[in-house]
Amino acid sequence: MHFEFCILNCFDGIILGLYYYPSGTELAEEFGGGWRYALMPKKNSDELFHFQENQIQPLSPQELFSQIRAEINFYQQQIAIRQQQLLAITGGSTYG
């Protein structure tokens, strides 16, 4: 499962991980204390960005529902395409 987000400038992406830098630690002194998020701008991106908690804004429940519904529809279409391809390859017969 992945979580969607919108950085304050509305750069969309996916949260891959979270880190907590406790105050008084070397990491907190270098990068700032608190929660930090590892984010990927797109599903198939090889880029990874890190942001502090106050730099991101989660999607609203309605936006999240809409994105989940769109993803479900996409995969249902992919399943239908693969089923048609399978029927074409097997000549309509099923081996199962």
Automatic annotation (TrEMBL):
Q: Which UniProt keywords apply?
A: Plasmid
In its UniProt entry, what is this protein called? Uncharacterized protein
Instruction: Please name the source species.
Output: Nostoc flagelliforme CCNUN1
Q: Name the lineage.
A: Bacteria, Bacillati, Cyanobacteriota, Cyanophyceae, Nostocales
